[in-house]
Write a structure and sequence with these properties.
Layout (H helix, E strand, L loop, with lengths): L2 H19 L3 H12 L2 E2 H7 L4 H13 L3 E6 L2 E6 L2 H17 L1 H12 L9 H9 L3 E5 L3 H6 L6 E2 L17 E5 L7 H11 L4 E3 L4 H6 L9
Parallel strand pairs: 4-5, 4-6, 6-7
Antiparallel strand pairs: 1-3, 2-3
Helix pairs in contact: 2-5, 3-4, 5-6
Length: 222
């Protein structure tokens, strides 16, 4: 084998490590969750409906590919993205798949269009309306994800707390709910509940990572 061929083989083997690491739908979901906020293995397993043992094995593969990092504190191990570029890579993979695979759009329409139109709100217009106080934006993700970063001006109202906090929400302006992004159903469910109680509500398709990718700022509590 020539040195040139050996060089090529060795190089592409390393590139393939990333491809192998993200070849599992389970691992892709874990990456998606880690784009929202760092989490313990136990929390990731619960959110992804996996056993702790399976989640640990998948995370070990992602860590071996240097896509995630782990930190142990006492009995718990917390995982996070190795760097923001990993989230950019996951988002680019998602967008590529959406542009090439018609089945993704079909699945999204099946689960979302029955209750909420797929059209994304205009992001610039939304920012202007928030600044003028014309719309209330709800972050319906878990609190730890909100604290890791959220759309400026958004209120943290986790989906599980929505019913108990309806009386605090304004009825004289539109409410926009967002969650983890286009593959998350929290915002769609929040909009259904809000409309059922007489609120004017819409869903923002973007998640925080998408919002930032468009060049918009992200806010974190002090």
């Amino acid at each position: 084998m020539s040195e040139h061929r050996r060089f090529k083989n060795t190089l592409y083997e390393q590139l393939a490590r990333i491809g192998k690491a993200v070849s599992s739908p389970r691992r892709l979901e874990l990456l998606d969750l880690l784009c929202q906020a760092p989490r313990t293995v136990e929390a990731l397993a619960k959110e992804a409906n996996q056993t702790i043992a399976n989640a640990s094995q998948h995370l070990k593969v992602l860590r071996a590919a240097r896509l995630v990092e782990a930190e142990k504190a006492g009995l718990f191990v917390t995982y996070r993205l190795a760097e923001p570029e990993v989230g950019d890579f996951y988002r680019a993979l998602r967008l590529l798949a959406e542009s090439r695979l018609a089945d993704i759009e079909r699945i999204l329409r099946l689960y979302l269009n029955s209750s909420e139109p797929m059209e994304a709100l205009d992001r610039n217009a939304l920012r202007e309306r928030v600044a003028r106080g014309e719309v209330t934006v709800l972050d319906v993700r878990p609190v730890e994800e909100y604290e890791a970063g959220h759309i400026p001006g958004a209120l943290s109202v986790p989906l599980k707390e929505l019913e108990s906090r309806l009386e605090r929400l304004p009825r004289d302006q539109e409410i926009v709910a967002y969650c983890r992004g286009p593959y998350c159903l929290f915002a769609a469910e929040a909009v259904e509940r809000l409309r059922a109680h007489g609120f004017q509500a819409r869903r923002l398709e973007d998640g925080v990572f998408d919002w930032r990718a468009h060049g918009f700022p992200i806010e974190r509590p002090r």
